[in-house]
Amino acid sequence: MTTAAPTQAPPEREAVRVRHDDLVAFAAGVFTDRGLPPDRAAEAARALCHGDLAGPRSHGLANLTRLYLPLLDEGRADPAAEPRVLADLGAAVLWDSRRALGLWAASEAMDLAAERAARHGIGLVSVRGATHLGCAGYHALRAAERGMVGLVASNCGRQRIARPPGGAVAMLGTNPLSVAAPAGEHPPFLLDMSTTAAPTGRIRQAAREGLALPEGLLCDDTGAPVTDPAAFDAGRAHLMWLGGEAGRYKGFGLGLMVEVLSALVPGAGTGPHPDALDGDGGPSGRDDDIGFFVAAIAPGALRQGADDDARELFGALLACPPTDPDAPVRYPGWHEYHRARELRLAGVPLEAELYAELAELADRTGLPFEAMREETR
What we know:
Elements: E1 15-18, H1 20-33, H2 38-54, H3 64-73, E2 84-88, E3 92-96, H4 102-120, E4 122-130, H5 136-144, E5 149-154, E6 177-183, E7 186-193, H6 200-209, E8 218-219, E9 225-226, H7 230-233, E10 238-239, H8 248-264, E11 290-297, H9 299-302, H10 306-318, H11 334-346, E12 348-351, H12 352-365
Parallel strand pairs: 3-4
Antiparallel strand pairs: 1-12, 2-3, 4-11, 5-6, 5-11, 6-7, 8-9, 8-10
Helix pairs in contact: 1-2, 2-4, 4-5
Protein name: Malate/L-lactate dehydrogenase
Keywords: Oxidoreductase
InterPro entries: Mal/L-sulf/L-lact_DH-like_ah, Mal/L-sulf/L-lact_DH-like_NADP, Mal/L-sulfo/L-lacto_DH-like_sf, Malate/L-lactate_DH-like
């Protein structure tokens, strides 16, 4: 295939727009080049590009060369892995992902959970031996698209990034959690969050862009706030829990909840482990043997009228009188839905540095990758 040679790099911080379908096709081509079957590569690409389309950008294509290709190139993810069913009780399934690329495997797990939920009212797929799944919300939305409630939680395997409150050693990962639900004619509800005050991707994104962080995301060993994102990888700061200093036990508790659901249940690698006690206080371990908790709930299988109730619930929220007329009431997922719809038409903005990085990758792989022409923006 021919490739548009990278032209002069756009000015620093200028966004370069690329069609969403072109981004997906490019990422799918890269994954196929690394050995993924075409159907898996396409699904992994859609999951990856969701971050750039709907947010957060830190979980999008910026991770292609920084996270997913190294996983494949180092053999820590197996492009041809066939997940194995270890137990099947009908509504509940235990899966060994066998190091399949998590971007694809988490979607497969949710599809299986939704299939069982259609039959039993609920479907649970508990997964071990997994790799990074990208945006948890992308996979939760697969259930909402079928009229179900989707739940996704993932630990970070044996990678330790955050310290327990009062602790001097990192013991847990960012442990993301997501819930999605249909809302009738309104945009689907989508909560997608890390249980730390921010995911590491957001911290590193700010460092790449030379931006200061708000207080409440990082602190030093004394608990003092740190706003320099580069301090995290330099070992001078560590992640705080969701809820800030005053409410840190809430975020920590949620992080432990994710650890229980996604790792303890399937038997995946855990962050809190005697090995972690040998750490020097900073991040330790690798994100191998990640665990997933993937569930779908079908209210319509249990009772009639659930769809109407969802429409009424979210419609009432949107109708709530705002304190500021210029800032109407919205719920998690509303902004992401409208952002994604807009960018499908206008093109997805990529930072100039990321565009240049992907264009260089396109040159190496012989895949087409080109910005939108000015007149099509």
